[in-house]
Sequence to fold (183 residues):
Amino acid sequence: MIDIVEEVPAHAGAREALLDLCFGDERFTKTSERLREGRLPVFAFSALDESGRLVGTVRLWSVADRNGKLCLLLGPLAVDPACRGSKVGDRLMRHALNQCALHGHGSVILVGDLPYYTRFGFEAGRLDEASLPGPVSRERFLGLEFAAGHLAGLNGPLSAAGLADLAGPTAATQDLYPVSKLA
Fold:
């Protein structure tokens, strides 16, 4: 049995190990990472197995367009390879999206594979007027609306918004991971 719970500080080490396992060090060079650096997530959920071991994670971050219009950036979503095929990722996604809708957020965006994310309502071609702070494959730049027209209103480069992570890495550490990969 898998439980979806709010992430707590005790999950941090296991979350980072899982992200390393699933994405390696390249995760730090992705364009989406520029929007997460130095910020706290709006939502963070962990999937725990029956022994309490973290087997999945998903986080959502506040981002704003040039006019200050907010939306949420989803990612990363990761599932322990030993649990793949058991719908852990689906449960994490559905839980996260339900929480976004319940809390009144207008939309969620992400960079990912359309064949996977379309089952949750994400679509390509909805973010033509928005851009990320680095390279991204436009066909992987996906959006989902909870409020009609919310994505159409996003305009220009997106930037990090929300609460700063005052306990996070320093600027010197962030320079170790320059943008060089597609999000």
